[in-house]
Amino acid sequence: MERFSDALATGPTHPDYTLLVTGDRGTGKTALLNVLEDQAADQNWMVITAAASAESVSARVASEARRCIEQMRKGRRGTRVSSVSMMGVGVSLEPDLRGSEGAPSLLAVLEELGDLLADRGSGVLLTVDELHDVDRDDVRNVASAVQIVTRRRQRPVAFAAAALPLIEDTHLADPNMTFLQRCARARLGLLEADETRRALQQPIIDRGSVIKDDALAEAAALTLGYPYMIQLVGFHAWQMREDPSAPISLINVRAGAVVAESAMVDQIAGPTWNRLSPMDRRFLFAMLKDEPDSSLADIAERLERNLQYARTYRRRLIAAGAISSSSKGRVRFRHHALRVRAETAVREE
Ligand SMILES: Nc1ncnc2c1ncn2[C@@H]1O[C@H](COP(=O)(O)OP(=O)(O)OP(=O)(O)O)[C@@H](O)[C@H]1O
Ligand SMILES: [Mg+2]
Question: Which residues make up the CATH 1.10.8 domain(s) of the chain?
């Protein structure tokens, strides 16, 4: 947040003016993009938001940029002009803004908008969520327009995108994606132990309640510093109290954690699991026998494949956010919820 507000204040020469946020599911990428949008709006900037969905990002940005231009011509400024919710519900566009010969090029519209905003000492922030799911040609279109307007012509068009780490192996590995490769990076991950305790305790204190020390210690340990889990455990422990004025106890935390864990399985492990191939899943099944981690050699043996083969799948699964390397030649589930999801799948087979 600090880096970005500094970038907005400095201008297009600042390295963080074009930013790529990466992190596993539920680490707070969308939450962070929303804060960056608020920061820009507070500076009276325009904000155009887009996400992977049926409509192309280029088409959406072009039409929204046209809308910004129209707004400025009408003398209204500094408002958030659009948003695409996480459910993918778009804002309907006014028909008169669509040219009859189809939309003008994204580059032309962004250049015009950039010029207008530069004259007024303002700017526009372009955010793209779920960038890993945006079609490659579409990413290239947006990237090349921003490359020219922001980097070459130094217009106030800032760019912030969010993606799962698997983008390293897809869009970022594409030699034609130099714009993305040169975006500054913000990697979101697990919170430290003291940050985790603060994230759990502060909202409780802010709402005029307390959590007992042993309950806080257990809640923090249960979450493993995973931001989405922190939110779930905190919420459900709070809800578990029969007397809302009582302090949150160890019993409340344990009961809340059960509900939180099952939400993690559905909401975090589910989407990860659904993207995996049958062989990816067989690799995970082969890990279930071991706790807390597995040796790659054992997995290869169980799969009846060689070590080289197992290494290829290890790389794929790390990129997919399913596993991580625990030590040399050993892997573990990235989070407990995915192990639970894999166990369920084994039972269903
Ligand atoms: N720093 C934070 N402060 C408060 N809440 C947060 C923070 N980070 C994440 N959260 C909460 O955790 C949940 C997950 O965050 P978010 O949706 O931003 O994750 P994400 O990285 O975009 O996940 P996905 O890859 O699945 O889209 C949200 O409900 C969000 O409110
Ligand atoms: Mg998100």
Answer: 193-272
Considering only the top CATH level, what class is 193-272? mainly alpha
> Is ligand 1 within 6 A of the CB of residue 231?
yes
**Amino acid identity, position 253:** V
Q: Report the nearest-CA residue for atom 16 of ligand 1.
A: 28
**Alpha carbon 127 to its chain's center:** 12
CATH number of 2-187: 3.40.50.300
H-state helical runs in the chain: 2-10, 29-42, 57-73, 106-119, 136-146, 178-181, 193-206, 213-223, 227-240, 250-264, 270-274, 278-287, 296-303, 307-319, 336-348
Mean of per-residue pLDDT scores for the chain: 90
Q: How far is the CA of 57 from the centre of ligand 1 (A)?
A: 22
Q: Range(s) for CATH 1.10.10.10 in the chain? A: 275-348
Q: What is the pTM of this model?
A: 0.82
Q: What class, spelled out in words, does domain 275-348 have in CATH?
A: mainly alpha
Q: Give the Å distances, CA to CA, from 43 to 5, 21, 31, 39, 74.
A: 9, 21, 19, 7, 20
Average pLDDT over residues 105-113: 94
DSSP lists the bridge partners of residue 49 as 127
Ligand nearest the Cα atom of residue 199: 1
Averaged pLDDT for residues 130-157: 95
> Is 116 touching ligand 1 by the criterion CB < 6 Å?
no
Assess contact for 304 and 267: CB atoms under 8 A: no
Decide whether any atom of ligand 1 lies within 6 Å of the 39 Cβ: no
- For residue 190 the two structure tokens come to 């697990």
**Residue 104: pLDDT band by 50, 70, 90 thresholds?**
low
